[in-house]
Amino acid sequence: MSTTDAGAVPTYEIHAVRYARVDRERHQNFIMTEDLHEQMPLDFFVWAIVGNDQTIVVDTGFGPEEAARRGRELRCTPAAALGEVGVDATAVRDVIVTHLHYDHAGTTDDFPSATFHLQDKEIAYATGRHMTTPATGHAYAVEDVVAAVRLIYGNRVRFHDGDAEIAPGINVHYIGGHTAGLQCVSVNTERGTVVLASDASHFYENMEKRSPFPIVADLTEMLRGYDRLDELATSPDHIIPGHDPLVLQLYPPSIPGSEDAVRVDS
Question: Would strands 157-160 and 115-119 be described as parallel, antiparallel, or unpaired?
C-alpha cells in the first residue's frame, strides 16, 4: 500500500488466487448461447487486498468435502492458496463475503480472527423460503450457512445494507441479481479503481455481451449489475470477473513462476 500525502486515500495490491477449477461446456455458463458444447472451464478464486498495515480477504472458497461432493478439482485449500502470496489466514482481521454460495463462503473456520462482512439481504435469502426450492438452493451448502449463523451469534459478522466503506479505499457495493444479497468490492489501486465483481459476472463475456450466467435470483437486477460495475470501475479493464481463467493470463504473477496467483492491481 502507498499514499501520496498524509490526506490521500491509500492504494492497495490485489491478488487473485485460484484454489480450484472445474471443466464445463459453454452452455453451462450462459442463459443463452449458440455454441453449446464448446469447452469453457471455470476457475475458483479468492482475493487478497494487501496494504502496509492490513490484509482484507474477499471470500473463503470451499474445502475438500464440498469439492468431492460437487466434483470440483481442489488444487489446495483457500487458506493454503493465500499462504502462497504471504497471507496468513489465521491473522486476517476482515473477510468480505460477497455471497453465501458454497464456493464463496466455506472454510470460515480457517479464519479464526476475522470479522465477516455480509449484506443483510444475503443472510435473509440463504435462511429463508427460497432455500426450500432446489433451483435456488442447490448452490448453497447448508453447513456453510449454519456456520455463518454461528458467526452471527458469536458477534463476528458486520452487516451492510447497500454500499459501505470497509477501510479507506475499500468499499462494498450491493449488486444482487445472482443472489438476493450479492455484493462486489471496489479497491483504490495505483492504476485506478479496480472492482472485484465476484459473481456479478462470472466471465468477461457475461458482462461484455450482457449474457448472464444461468444461476440467477433476479435477471433484471443481474443485468443492471453490469452497468453498476461499469460505473464503479475506472474502466472496463478494471473489472475482475469472479471465475474467468483469462484473469490468470492477463495479469502478472504475484510471485515468480506462480500459475495460480496474479496481481490484478498491476
Answer: parallel
The number of C-alpha atoms within 13 Å of 111 and in the hemisphere containing its C-beta is 32
- Distance in angstroms (rounded) separating the CA atoms of residues 41 and 55: 29
- What is this structure's pTM? 0.96
Compute the distance between CA of residue 265 and CA of residue 254 in angstroms, rounded to an integer. Answer: 10
What does each C-alpha distance from 264 to 71, 126, 132, 190, 243 come to in angstroms?
28, 30, 38, 11, 14
- Residue 240 has φ and ψ, to the nearest 5°, of -110, 110
Task: Please report the sign of the dihedral spanned by the C-alpha atoms of residue 188, residue 4, residue 55, residue 75.
Answer: positive
Neighbour tally for 24: CB within 10 Å: 14
Pick the closest to residue 42 from 195, 206, 251, 225 (CA basis). 206
CB-based contacts of 85: which residues, under 8 Å, 6+ apart? Answer: 15, 17, 48, 50, 254, 255, 258, 261
Task: Check if the beta carbon of residue 73 is closer than 8 Å to that of residue 96.
Answer: no
State the Cα–Cα distance between residues 202 and 205, nearest whole angstrom.
8
Cell 468477461 belongs to residue: 204
For 154-190, the pLDDT digits (tens) are: 999 999 999 999 999 999 999 999 999 999 999 999 9
Candidates 136, 137, 22, 19; CA nearest to 71 is: 22
State the DSSP H helix or E strand holding residue 205, giving kind and residue range, or none if neither.
Answer: helix 204-208
Cell numbers for 119: 449484506
